[in-house]
Amino acid sequence: MGWFRVVTSGGVSAGAGLAVTLVLCTACVRGKSLVDPPDAASGTGAEGYHPPPPVGGTTAPTEIDTVVAVPALTAPGFTIPANFLGLSFEAWDVTDQARLTDPVLPRFITNLGAGILRYGGSTADQQCWNPTVRTTCPFGGPTITNADLANIFAFSRATGWPVIYTVNLVNLMPDTAAAEVHAIKAAGGGALLAVEIGNEPDQYVAQGLRSGGWGYTQFQNEWESYAGPIATRTPGVQFDGLDGCCATGAGWLGGFVGAEDARLVLATHHIYPTFNGAASGTPYYPSIANLLDPFTADRVTSDVQQLYQAVAGRLPLRITESNSVGGSGLAGVSDVYASSLWAVDHMYTLAENGAVGVNFHGSFGGGNYEAVSGGSGSYTAHPLYYAMLLFHTAAQGQTVPVAVTARRNVAVHATVGTDGTLRVTAINNEPMTNVQVRIAPGRSYRSAGTLRLTGPSLSATSGITFAGSAVSANGAWTPGAYAPVYSAQGVYAVSVPAASVAVVTLTP
User: Fold this and answer.
1) CA distances from residue 33 to 40, 75, 418, 421 in whole angstroms, order as listed
2) For residue 364, which of 98, 119, 99 has the smallest C-alpha distance?
3) Which of 21, 113, 217, 326 makes an SS bond possible with 272, Cβ 3.0 to 4.6 Å?
4) Burial degree of 408 (CB within 10 A; 0-12, 13-18, 19+)
5) Lowest-confidence range among 55-59, 131-135, 159-163, 466-470?
6) β-pair partners for 453
């Protein structure tokens, strides 16, 4: 079970007493990182950042619409691992030699700190492997060679991000998969984090990949028919799973983890809040309005809590594939500034409810919902990338429950580091209404500063900045200085314009 935030109404004057209620989790298991030191997620700020300015260096905000946020500092929640962030790719991307060997591209990844690369997607169950020759694959996907495997691990080492790799379960060729994993381990060594067997197997019947009547029991038997030969051929290899999607996969997860946890290092699932093909007028229909509606975050909260309960603390839970719109994204929704606001809230929602990370799906080659795309030494950081950059900067330490006064489309999240630094992220999803957020932490701080995520409009595809700076085509990003924060009587007040995010750092 995760943290619940109960929103209640109360007075909004600085220093006034507020009637707020916090419903807290009493049996949380702390998130844990697989590849980083225990306290690597905590700290005093992103590398290269100077401390924020002293308190009191600005005038009071004047917005009439006001949100009061009360962090529950005495009841921190899950630890956010340093490698929380991740990217997910299709099997075709394994063959993208030009980009995987481009010396410019790793800079975009290292800007985000530690993370995890995952190769999978629907084409993982269509791919073939041939150690030396790129033959035509009869399953409709790419033929991956050992040279391709060398490229993905060269990229992994250049970024410091280890790899999750998916083998084809649909073709029912376990001995071939065992040989492929042996080659993968030879290429990757310690940079291979885990192997996935199949992609979204709970959808195989619906996709015509298995006949009617095939279900969890048959899947587990097939999974074990792969895991055994793989582990025998390559001792010490680790697995994750079951990498399912939707309600059926969530229903399978608890039983799968209970049966296979000795072989697994992660329990994994996929989450997309909207998807192509959903009926207009439903909350799943891909639109900016649906993406930013509080109902979407509430639904994701419910989904993650269900997954976390199913895993029951036996393994860390990672969302290994996610993005704004399932089915390759949608232009005008997935590739616009609104998706940046959504992604910030999405990452916090996952972290606050027990997930140890998320891999955003896409391709460096371009599409509708990529974080970064381009080639030949010149790349574009898309709206999603700026959300990830913000989260890397702001989400340090443990999550902190926040009670807020009612405002329908303003979300407030917080984390606290081991040094006591409080970071509060306020997301104003309102398209036209500016608000002020008053943070009442119940203690004073030596200094306070604000960094902002901004864009020209919710539908903009460019012109986005974080910390006053855009990311250049070669990955260079030079963040600006913290802006001062107004304070009075222990309350810290900041303006949050329409369609923007403010990150307030309070240093003890």
Assistant:
1) 9, 21, 16, 21
2) 99
3) 326
4) exposed
5) 55-59
6) 466, 501
Task: Give the pair of three-digit tokens for residue 421.
Answer: 């630094």
| pLDDT tens digits, one per residue of 240-259 | 999 999 999 999 999 999 99
Q: What is the pLDDT of residues 187-232, one digit of tens each?
A: 999 999 999 999 999 999 999 999 999 999 999 999 999 999 999 9
Give bridge partners of residue 422 from the DSSP assignment. Answer: 416, 506
Q: Which two tokens stand for residue 310?
A: 């199913």
Assess whether the previous peptide bond of 242 is cis (omega < 30° from 0): yes
> Residue 458: exposed, middle, or buried by beta-carbon count in 10 A (0-12, 13-18, 19+)?
buried
What is the DSSP pairing of strand 435-439 with strand 491-496? antiparallel
Task: Compute how many other C-beta atoms are within 10 angstroms of the C-beta atom of residue 22.
Answer: 17
Bigger pLDDT: 31 vs 460: 460
Q: Phi first, then psi: what are they for 230, rounded to 5°?
A: -65, -45
Length of the chain: 508
Whether 426 contacts 410, CB under 8 Å? yes
Burial 206-219 (b: 16+ CB within 10 A, else e): eeebbeeeeebeeb
> Of all helices (H) and strands (E), which one includes residue 207?
none
